[in-house]
Amino acid sequence: MTHQPKLIIGLLGYGVVGKGFYNAVKQTPGLNVVIKKIVIKHRAKARDVDDNLFTDDVEAVLQDDEINTVVELIDDAKAAYALVKKAMEKGKAVVSANKKMIAENFEALMYLQKQYRVPFLYEASCCASIPILRCLEEYFAFDEVKSIKGIINGSTNFILTKMLNSQLSFSEALAAAQKAGFAEANPALDVEGHDAANKFSILLAHGLGCRVHPREILYSGITHISKADIDYALKEKKTIKLLASAQKTTDGSVRAFVLPCFIRQDDELCHVKNELNALEVEGVFLGRQIFKGKGAGAYPTAAAVLSDVAAVQKGYQYPYRKLQEKSTGLKNDFLLDVYISADQLTKIKISDFKRIKEVQSRLGIHYVLGSIEAGKLLNTNWWKQKGVSLFVTEITYAQNNLPVSQSVTTNELAEISM
Amino acid sequence: MTHQPKLIIGLLGYGVVGKGFYNAVKQTPGLNVVIKKIVIKHRAKARDVDDNLFTDDVEAVLQDDEINTVVELIDDAKAAYALVKKAMEKGKAVVSANKKMIAENFEALMYLQKQYRVPFLYEASCCASIPILRCLEEYFAFDEVKSIKGIINGSTNFILTKMLNSQLSFSEALAAAQKAGFAEANPALDVEGHDAANKFSILLAHGLGCRVHPREILYSGITHISKADIDYALKEKKTIKLLASAQKTTDGSVRAFVLPCFIRQDDELCHVKNELNALEVEGVFLGRQIFKGKGAGAYPTAAAVLSDVAAVQKGYQYPYRKLQEKSTGLKNDFLLDVYISADQLTKIKISDFKRIKEVQSRLGIHYVLGSIEAGKLLNTNWWKQKGVSLFVTEITYAQNNLPVSQSVTTNELAEISM
Predict the structure, then answer these.
(1) Would you say the C-alpha torsion B380, B384, B385, B387 has a positive or negative sign?
(2) Global model pTM greater than 0.95
(3) Which one is the CATH code of A7-125: 3.40.1390.10, 3.40.50.720, 3.40.190.10, 3.30.2130.30?
């Protein structure tokens, strides 16, 4: 372990995580690592470190054969992919934290690793500080993973914690998250659930051997959660979490979603607060493992990047073992027990429900409790429109074989048709 | 990752975990692993598998050059060490779950690995299913670990859970644990804290770079916990856990103990019940990581052994990175805030306290609340005698620089001298 190749790093991006990574490297003794160049957009901007390190010309890194490792920490997924591709073609190892870029270009990136025999590692892309990808690849290597469930977006969890515990509105909580540095200036990627879907796409591949583009996953965000929803949850002694959940069935197929859920106070995910992330991974032999740690922040993320750099130094590459076992892919044939609320009941498409347990439409409170097929939700958008919010009330993955129910009372139906 | 050397395994021991390992190997597709021989004590005993696999002659494994890997799963630490040593001398890789053997022979085992260039892995020795050693070695490779705290013995945690939640006495709870298969027929190793001390000794080396023999660690078990102690804890809205706790100070020295603790309901370790284990590892950059999983049971332990077998296949060896950084070793100069109860107050050596907050001695309830130096406890045994139990009330690692306090009232002192 002592004679490791020197890594000469070209760092792409110098935002919050980039700075954190630069400082972490500087403050870490015993690393045989040098950051030779830092590529940034705006050369002009004043920097807090040696100005000669910086360049706005990416070729200064790509064409420098001494640079054997590229650490990619820029926002723009498209630009990132183009640069990562070029770096790998040049035979450089790449470490990235760009979940969107990875989730959307997964096959291409696997091909590039094989083709150019270079490590491509991205632990920091999923749950920042939690060592989940390495554990799934190595520790669960020979144990079949039956399910993965967790909180994988720090900023939405921070916002939900404030909405539930401090009675803040969504916009107030979002402002607090931005103030605390746990939400981007443009928070859409987080609060609309895209970020969680990107991460889950990566986790499904490494954990359940199920490769799907994020857009194939049933997901939503937390933007339309109303005061009434919060009150309903608290009345039911539940809390609200944006959960990513997936289950592998005996035939190898996977059922998955990323949706806001009502969870009981005795569920341990209930205790995962603010920017923390947590994942429950259940193996056939290992049983239920829980990983919990900081899901956001400069240093937790930078440290995960650093651990990948150390792994590159050892020539580590992901075996993608679960993908070799091949699952039969994603199925959306299961029923979700949901609570769907709206500012007008007419926004809720009652006919899409497979079964209705309760309809409430009075005193300005409108909601429907019932069961709806995941595939139905995936193919419609009415439940994502402004004023409407959907919550999973019970995670069952029940198969869709229920008779259409008549449990709505005429009185309630009368109200619906109003 | 696809062309891995075939492992021909000699399995030592066929107890609960040995059987679990054998079955796990049989049920795992894609393993390039064969169990060629199983060494057991009593050849005669009827077995549920191919009888030709079994032998009571260990040489059948040691002298078989085709066998390149030994999986050691026997109880007797002394015998185990002798066998492991011989196997390594023969150039065989070794996987073990024997925490006592490893903790007591740590240096010798490190030497043997170097000398004979063979992997020696033991993930299953610490917290069964939790992948803690690999994470400490690889993921925390370049992040300094500031502290480790956790529940690392499943059977004592099972017993304490039953004592607190089901109001069972220690002996009733122990019987329940044995019935559930979470305690040995001879439970001393677990309930007296030896097992936790052995594990913690291993964790201190891999996590904090502090190598100490288990006997150098301040520890005790749970055997003398009384109904009165339980009532006191519940009255204080606390629960009781046998915690292993260690902290690294800026000078690199380590302060550590394994003792029963009163912990608050809002402490997440409070939710770690029955046979579950949990570890909180705090890194300078990574922040607080929590690992939680099954700490006992045939399959969780066998699966950890299997993950080591997979690692052997990749030629993995522990780098012992934290030991290379060298800490200045264990210090016992810190004060512990404790509650010590006894069936007779005279059993409590008041003069050993640095400070006394409260003395209670009436209606058959006798206890002292105060501060006592860790080193003092390490060098005395009165607090371990029958009828006496000690609990840490607050984990502070406060330095011992307090003035001796006069806070005991004459009235209380009068009672003490009774």
Answers:
(1) positive
(2) no
(3) 3.40.50.720
